[in-house]
Structure formats: C-alpha cells, structure tokens
User: Fold these one by one.
Assistant:
Number 1:
Amino acid sequence: MKKYNIWDKAFVSIKSNQDAYWLGFVFGGCTLRQRGDSFSICISSNVYENLKDLSEFLDFKGNIKCNDSYYVVFFSSKEIYNSLVQWGIPTSKRTLSVAFPLLDNKYIPYFICGYLDNNSSLCIANRRNGSISELRLEIRGPYHFLLPIKEFIEDDFQLNKHKRICKKTTNGSCSLTLTGYNVKNLLIKYYNGVDKIRHRNKELLVRVING
C-alpha cells in the first residue's frame, strides 16, 4: 500500500460536532485489518463526494477507488487504527462485535447523523400518497450497536419504548426502523448543526427538513 500523509490524531478524542459526525460516518462503513506492522483501514461509501469530504477532514491525498457499486479509500495508520478500535470498531476477525462508542451526550446526535449518512435508507413507503406519515428510515447494524441508538432516540423524543430491533440476516445483521413524524422530528433536530447533508437520498432528506 502506497504511503500518504494523513492526520493521525483525527479520532484520538472527539471534541467537536464535526469529529463526532465523521466518527459516525466511519462506523457506517469501515474495515480494519492488521498484518504484521501494517495497520490498514478501508472506508466505503455509495457516494463519491462523501469520501472526498472525509479525505479532506483526514488531510488524506490518496485516491478514491470505485469497487462495483460503491467507492472506497484505503490507507495505513497505526494511530487511526488504534483509535477506531478503542472507540468500538471491530477488527476483521470479529466483525459483529462493534460497540457503540462512549461519547458525551451532546455529540451523539452528530455521531448518529454521520452513521445515517453512510448506513441507512430513507424512503416514502407509499409513493402515491407521498405524505410525511409514509416516511420510513431504516438503520442497519449489529443488535448491540443499534440498541443504544434506539434508547437514545426514545429518551430524546419521549417515544413509547416498544420499537423492536429486527434481525435481517443469518449473520446477525439487524435493522431499526422509524416511521412517519418520528423520522421528520429526528431529521430536523439532529441535522440542524451538521455542516452538510451527505445521505444517499439527500434530496428526500432535504425536502423533509425544509417541508
């Protein structure tokens, strides 16, 4: 792997909304691998521009590669690797043991936005109707990662605590689905301080927030 300069201290600590956002984004599509003295990080996204923005945040000058229907950046950094492991991203040998990071509560909404922008789907279930009541937000991930998100959202919006996390596949991947005005209220509140909306369905998200 070709060596590029990078901001090695990017995730040592989370001290700003932007730090929290990009940590969440990385959680949404990151693979870590160690071989000997090589500490490799691969971050993927469906949107090329999002990885350009991440590269700018990391001060990374390497290439963004296209891999089938998504884009990836590869780089090597022992410091970033160790920081991400400490925050809860698993190594490739324990891919479903991802843990929700212990963040200050004021940064959790930004972390969630970053994660949503890289690992969630947003749609209107009934396109003919097209109303806010038909909004559907599906957040994907391991159960023990989604559970703190579920509890934080329920407490923040005083929702009834009956929403279930559904198992999606036999490998342990799960989903948390929110619908209707709960989605609108979450998007308006959490994206209020985000510098830029990067969700793969950005047009719908912007329409919901501005509508």
Number 2:
Amino acid sequence: MSSERFASGPKPPANEVDSLLERVAEIQASCEHDYENTGGIVLQESAVKGVYKVGWLGHVIEFTLTCVKCSEEKKVRANEMCPICVEPLEPNEPALSAKQYDRYWGRGLTSEAREVKCPECGLRLVYEC
C-alpha cells in the first residue's frame, strides 16, 4: 500500500502577522540574551535540610526562562541551571550509590543520585540518576 501527500492548494501569500513573526525571529537570533526564571518552580526539601529534590524516577523538573530583552523562552532542567540566579550548576560531589543517598529521600532508592550546587547562591539540589 502506498501513500501520497496531497496539498490543499497553493501557499497563501505572506501577511502582516507572518512578517512580524519573521522580524521577531530575526531579533531573537541576534539578541544577547539576559534570561530570568519566569515560569516559577516549586522545590521540595529532601530529608537533608537545605537540599531540595528536583528529580526522581528518571524525571527532572523543568522551568521556563524568558529573555528580558527579546522575550525568547526556553525550558531548562533544574539539575543543570539554578532556578534562583539562573547560573549553571556544578556537581557538588561525585555520584554516590543508592545506599549512600538514602538520606535524601528517607527511603531506599533503586538508582544512584547526584547532588548539584549553584556556585553563585549556594543552592543545593539533588536528583536521582
């Protein structure tokens, strides 16, 4: 069985909205971005005081950054970018075994976990690997 693609007609002519969207894309492409966390994020403290869980069971929380200069938005993972000061996170220590990381979840894990830390504000986050 073969399949064919059918077009409904000729491409419509560009309109004012198309022109504006093209201009926005040009502005965003040449922008020196200055991102802020506009999506918000809820952090749940782990069993270790001052360390917050941002990922478990292979899922890591994402939040939205918006450029204050051009309104470009992008999603970032909370284990890669600090949700407070929007700086890249660094590993706080090597990944440890599940048994060593039980202290964060207060229960046994089936995988390893990693703690990351923001070099700017000191925020500490943990997630399951």
